[in-house]
Amino acid sequence: MIVAGYSVSAGQHWPMGASLSGDGVNFAVFSAHATAMDLCLFSPDGRRELARLPFADREGDIWHLHVAGIGAGQLYGLRAHGPYAPEEGQRFNPNKLLLDPYAKGLAGRLRWSDAVMGYKIGSPRADLSFDTRDSAFAVPKSVVVDPGFFWGNDKAPQIPMADTVIYEAHVRALTMRRPDLQAPLRGTYAGLGHPVMIEHLKRLGVTTVELLPVQAFFDDRFLVAKGLRNHWGYNTMGFFAPEPRYGGQNPLAEMQTMVRALHAAGLEVILDVVYNHTGEGDAWGPTLGFRGLDNRSYYRLLQGGRYYANDAGTGNTLDLTQPAVLRMVMDSLRYWVEQVHIDGFRFDLATVLGREAYGFDRNGGFFDAIRQDPVLARVKLIAEPWDIGPGGYQLGGFPAPFSEWNDKFRDGVRRFWRQDAGMAPEFSRRILGSADKFDHDRRAATASVNFITSHDGFTLDDLVTYTVKRNLANGEDNRDGHDDNHADNMGVEGPSDDPAIRAARALRKRNLLATLLLSQGTPMLLAGDELGHSQAGNNNAYAQDNEVTRIDWAKADTGLADFVARLVALRRAHPVLRQKQFLHSRPRAADGLPDAIWRRADGAVPSPNDWHDSAFRCIGVELRMAAEGPDAADALFVVFNGGGPTLLGLPDTAPEWRLILDTTRPALSFEAHRTRLEIAGQSVLVFEPIPSGDQP
Questions:
Q1: 3-state SS track over 348-362
Q2: 251: left (phi over 0), alpha (psi -120 to 50) or beta
Q3: Which residues, in sequence order, are bridge partners of residue 622?
C-alpha cells in the first residue's frame, strides 16, 4: 500500500523499535492504551516532517508497521492518540512528537520550549489543560541505526570479581583536559579509548572502567535556564542510544571502537545505568516519549493517576512491575552486552528496580528476570542499594550475583581516620568485607564494593581539604549535596601553603587509599583521586560540565598515582587481600592458625574491653586464606594506626617479618624486622612473613 509516497505494509511485532529489513525498516512500538499511533518520517536535517504514516496493525499491545525504501540514518518520531485525562493517568497528546523508547540513536538537541509540554503553561487548570502546539521543532529525532560492527577477535576480559579493581570515570571529565589528546578527541568515546588513556589505566593496574551514564540523556530545563548542563547524566531518555555529546557522526560506532580498544588492553567496561526513572519528570514535566506513549504503563502512578510516585527523587518512577516496561529494561541490557560488548552494569538507585506493590522484594520480577537471563549471566551486576522510597535502604539485601556499593565502608573508614571516638569495631567489620551485611545466602565477600569517594560527594583531595561543601556554583544556594561528609581539613579550611598541613593531607590520602586497597571486598577508585583532582569543595557537581569536574592533567600528582599503582600491585600479588570467602577467625586445617588474628599495638589479641575502648586506634590484623577457602601459604600482617607514634609488637607466628609498605614512607621498598619497631602515628603498614629458609 502506498501512503504519502511510501510503500507500507503491516510488518512484524518484533523486534521492538526500528530494525533494518531487506528492503526497508520495520517499526514496533508498545502502547496498551493508545487508540492510534503514527510514524513520522523526517528530512536528514530533522527540520521537515516528510510523512505521517498510521500504524494499521497491532499484535496485542504492540503496534507495528513496515516501510520500504528507507534505511539506516532515517530520522523518525512517533505520535500517539488517545484520551487526555491526567486524573486517570492518561496523557496522550498527538501534537507532541515522541521518541521511540527503543531508538538506537538520537539526532539533534532538545530545545526547551513550552511547546514540549502536553499542557498549557500558565493555564489556571495547570496540567489538566491541553496544549495543541506541535513540538517537533524542539524534540530530537530518533534514528534508524545499523548496529553492525567489525569486532575482529574481540574477547571479553571476564575478570573474576575477586581480582577486580573498579575505576569510576566520566567520559568527558576524564579526557577533556588531557594535553596529549588531539582536541577533537577530548571529551569523547574515542578519547577514552585512545592509547594515552589506556596507558594510564594500565599503569594504575585497574581492571574495570565504570562509566557514568552514557545512555542518551537531556539537560534539565532549570539547568539550561541557569547556563548549566546535566553533567552526570542521570536523566535518561534513550535506554538504547549512546549519548551523542560524547560521539561524532556515529556515536554507537565510536563507543564500540572504544570498548574494543579497552578490551584489547585487558580492561572491562561497566555502564552506570538509570532504569529507575526517566528525564520526563513529574506531572509538570515535558511530554517527550514514555509519557505520551502510555503514561499509565510506563510510570508508577499514585492513587487516582494524576501524580507520580517519586522514589528516585526526580519526579517519576518507572514501573518495572509492568511486563512491557520490564521487557524494555531487559532488552536494553542485552543490547548493550550483545551489540556494544559491555561487561557489566551499575544500577542507579537499584532499590526502585526491586520494589513491588507491597515493597522491596529481593526475589521480585526484575531480579527473577535478570538472574535467569543467559546473556546477562556472564556480566557484572552492581547495585546502588538505596533510594528515597519506603524501605529504600537495602544494603546487603540484594540477591547474588549482585554486588553492592557499600556506603558503610565509606563512612566507617572516613570516620576512623578522622579519629572519631569508638570506631574500632565498625572499622574492623568494614575492612574484612562487611560480613554483617553480606555473609548470608552464599554471597561472597566481593559483594561489598568498597569506596572512599565516588562521583557523588567530595573528591579525595577535597575530603582532606574541606569540612563544609561549597556548591554555590550549582545555583541552589548551597542547599544541595550532603552536609555530613565525615571530612577533615587537617586544621585549615581550604587550600593551604603550609608544608605541615600539605604533608598531613598527603599522608591522609595515602592512608585512605591504602585502607581501600587492603580491605576485603571489591575496591572502587574515583577517577582523578590518584592525581590529586579537586572540585574546589563542590560535593554535588552534577551540573558542572566545566573545569570544576575536568581533571587537570597538567597538575597531576604523579607521586600519588605511583603510590596507587603500588597498592594495586600489592593487592594483585597477595591472594589474602582478595578473597571470596569471609574471614571469621576460624582455624585453618593447613596450619591450625585462624584466618584472621586481630592485634593490639603490643602484639596481643584485643580483649572485649579493648574493642569498646573509645581510644583504641592502632589495629593490626594478621591475614591468611579463609578456613573454608583454598589452601595457600600467603599471609600478611596489616596495621592501621589511626593514633599517635607507638611501639609495635610483631606477631610470633613468624620468626621475622618484612615491612613492604609504610604510608609515611611511600618510597620504602622493604626492610626486615624480628620482634618490634617504632611506627609513626597516622600510618598504614604491611608486613609479610619471611620464610625460615629466606632469613639471613
A1: CCHHHHHEECCEECC
A2: alpha
A3: 597, 637
Per-residue model confidence as pLDDT tens digits over 9-25: 999 999 999 999 989 99
User: Which pLDDT value is given to residue 673?
Assistant: 87
Q: How many CB atoms lie within 10 A of CB 612?
A: 12
Q: Which of 348, 420, 426, 530 is catalytic?
A: 348
What sign does the CA torsion over 493, 495, 496, 502 have? positive
What single DSSP character describes residue 36?
A: E
pLDDT of 311 over the 80 cut: yes
Instruction: Calculate what percentage of the chain has a pLDDT beyond 90.
Output: 95
Residue 680 grid coordinates: 609513626
The full DSSP string for 147-197 is -----TT-------GGG--EEEE-HHHHHTT-TTS-GGGTTSHHHHTSHHH
Neighbours of 372 (CB within 10 A): 9
Q: What is the pLDDT of residue 670?
A: 80
Q: Give the type of residue at 162.
A: A
pTM for this model (two decimals): 0.97
Can 348 be counted among the known catalytic residues? yes
Q: Is 622 a catalytic residue?
A: no
Rounded distance between C-alpha atoms, residue 169 and residue 525, angstroms: 9
Comparing CA positions, the residue from 455, 392, 393 lying closest to residue 174 is 455
> CB atoms < 10 A from the CB of 257, how many?
17
Res. 597: pLDDT tops 90: yes
Catalytic residue among 384, 411, 426, 595: 384
**pLDDT tens readout for residues 659-693:** 999 999 998 888 888 889 999 999 999 999 997 65
For 74-95, what is the mean pLDDT?
98
CB–CB of 599/657 below 8 Å?
Answer: no
C-alpha–C-alpha distance, residues 167 and 197, integer Å:
13
Average pLDDT over residues 529-558: 98
Gap between the Cα atoms of 212 and 262, Å rounded: 16
Q: What domains, with CATH codes, occur in the chain?
A: 2-143 (2.60.40.10), 596-694 (2.60.40.1180)
